TrEMBL record, chain A:
UniProt GO cellular component terms: plasma membrane
Gene: pstA
Source superkingdom: Archaea
Protein name, per record: Phosphate transport system permease protein PstA
Keyword Plastid: no
From TrEMBL, chain B:
Span list, region Disordered: 34-58
UniProt KW keywords: Signal, Transport
Descriptive protein name: PstS family phosphate ABC transporter substrate-binding protein
Domain PBP: 48-305
InterPro entries per record: PBP_domain, Phos-bd, Phosphate_ABC_transporter
Lineage of the species this protein comes from: Archaea, Methanobacteriati, Methanobacteriota, Stenosarchaea group, Halobacteria
Compositionally skewed regions (Gly residues) per UniProt: 37-46
Entry annotated with the keyword NAD: no
Transmembrane parts of this sequence: none
Species name: Halorubrum yunnanense
Amino acid sequence: MATEETTSDQLGQSTALRIQQLKGQLFEVALVAATLVGIVSLLVLFAQISNDAFRPRTASSTWFLVYFGTLVAPTAAFTLYARRRPAVRTANALAFAAVFGGLLLSFVTYVVVDALSPYDVFIYAFFASLPPVLVLAYDRTTDERTYTGPLIPVSIIVGVGVAALVDGPISGPLGVAAEWIMYFGLVTVPAALLVAWLTASRRGRRTGAVAGGVVAAGGLAVAVASIAAGVDASLPIVVFSAFAVPTGYVTWWSVKTNPEGRVGIAGPFVILGGVLLGASLVDRLGIESPDSYLTPTLILESWDGLTASNAGVYPQIVGSIIIVGFMAVLAFPVGIGAAIYLEEYAPDTGLRGRLATLLEVNISNLAGVPSVVYGLLGLALFRRTLGFGTGIVVSAAGTLGLLILPIVIVSTQEALRSVPNDLRQGSYGMGASRWQTLREVVLPEAIPGTLTGTILALARAIGETAPLVIIAVATTKYSPPSGLFSSATALPLQIFAASANAKPEFRHGVVPAAAVVLLVLMLLMNATAIVIRNKYGRTN
Amino acid sequence: MASSHDADGNGITRRKSLAALAGVGALGLAGCTSDSGGDGSDGSSGDGSESLSGDIRISGSSTVYPVAQEVTRQFSEQHSEVDFNLTRDGSGGGFNNVFIPGDSDMNNASRPITENELQRCRDNGIEPVEFFLAQDALTVVVNNEADFIDSISLEDLGTIWSPDTKPETWADVNSDWPDEPFDLYGPASTSGTYDYFIEAVIGETEADQDIREDFEGTEEDDLIAQGVSGNQYALGYLPFAYYTNNPDSVKALSLSEGGSEPVEPSLEGAQSGNYPLARPLFTYGHMGKIQEKNHLQEFIRYYINEADEDYIAQDIGYVPSSSDMVEANLTALEEAIAGEYEYSA
């Protein structure tokens, strides 16, 4: 009735209002559509890839029932239970990080050290860590602080140099010792020291020494037991030190400090137990599992271009990990150093200021340069100018390092910029020098942002194909790279080559399965970035 | 950092124990699925022949890559200390970027080495040693629904693809064929297959281009097959190895040349020389490195002997070399080891 009484003027106004509202709603709908386009198409792509890789439709329904019963239902029940209780959730998160981080750490450590030869890695690790430890000990005993700080990085570099010199002569005699002794030195000793240090800082020096001793003795016991059982002791030692020790420590710590939430520790074990129980049931009862392409063979064997069920990408996975790991060693100090200079030291005015601005603009542009161009740069720099061999680990890592350098610089700059200026001023006001302010105030604040950005850069590098093709990194190799100057291979290259295979089961089976492996590697890196960010975010 | 400490016997138990760890760690990725024979396939390291060690770099053609891949896999199972390094750069790419600078020991090629490449090899002090490996037959394919055609002559193919004639419809070439426009698919101009097809089918042209340009060029054989299977009046050409592994997607045409009886594409036909579109595949060894590296000599000997085997035809889809060719290759290898080989076209 009201509309009859309104004048045409009022009607016009309310129409205009309604059109305004409609415009707003349409705009919102358009935004939602824009968001969905990307996400939905990605989801469809992932679903297709996983379907091709796992082929869930080839499994019998009993298979799904078994895993629903052993894995999905218990995990869901546990998650529901934990959701309401913050203490349980905290313990659960900690246990998850320890268990899966430990598994990942043992896996990566073992395959990389095994590929590079445990003796060489041990020699380098020993000589690189001994000098800084000696310097630190001197620092603690004499209170001499003027020279020890700068001496630590210098001593590491000197140590690596010494290791490079003595590696040849020493590794021969050292070869008499069993491999597991090297792993003991590489993994168990640091784990024992870490546990000792952590316990000592919380429970006093004596308890710390006892805890470290228990870890070392445990490592020896594992070695003796494996040898008695006739198994190579190397992997058991790595798993014990990098998986069992952190899990045990976290469990013990949670039980001590968080008695309410200690049920949460069971979280990761519900999943692991579910997987193992399901696998053994499926095996025992002869249930038809999916005829998946993502098998242990794919992950642990080397390539076979004729039989899809025999094809494996173990050398390529390890090659990718070694390339990206060494790339991180090369690119992070340089990138973070450059970012700190540009953000904290470079003047804003004058000739040097303009130079710094020019640099910053160029670095931002470099972040967008196509990766093929970096491949050409790597080819010209490492092969033609420096005369390195074709497609070796150092060239590959260097090329990818140049590729991610701008990303590392830009993300670190962002992280430094987000540290409030008040903190710096406060620190200066208390009489701290610029270096002290940087080390004690700015850098700790900037760590989460820096790490997130840099690890995302790693995830980008692990999937790069074009630059590696240009510097002639091998597509197919039957063993992982055995050193930094041995020829490299990387997973994306083998995926690319297999996508041209004449047999359809390669193009539609092995390729998606290998792509899932690559995606999992990338997701693991991203997960690490998130865990680190959250951890530092909380403590600060 | 050489891995000289790596005892071979440990590898298997280590891998097995690693499998256990991966089974747990991969969390339902690897853990939930069936293991189709992960173990056992790599346990066959030969005894007594472990003395061979060193690295072998093989670059070059992606057409020859499947052969090289299979032969190196077999060889590395017998000689685990030989470290292979395969790249796929294309015949020319392999010569120019890897072989001529002296970075690879062997370069695979789906065509003979060119005059220019030979000259640059020699300028760098490299004598390329040619070994004939196998033949690759090209297959001309049409849609499965194309009932009007079962065979085609090379001359008609030339008319269809030539930039000079450029017929619009099938009926323009042969009045028995339907009056429907062509839909053409073929490898992109960067491919060695394309070079061979032009030379064998079109030859010299009056226009300043090699081939008509209104066709879909792609690097992926898969896309050619998809394109042809999507249109009843499409025509394309593919490596025989692709066709033989995916026979249902498209229909292959028999080929005739100069009024002869049409010949179905088959490896036998290509081997006997009756099938007109078969091209040779080669590998070129670096003579200096052959003389220097004992394991490279052994590998090349193995490679050229294997090129005669049946699996080259059955599993890869190429025409194996003949016992005569194997003999000729072995002679070339012996000459190269003695340092007396000289390449002549």
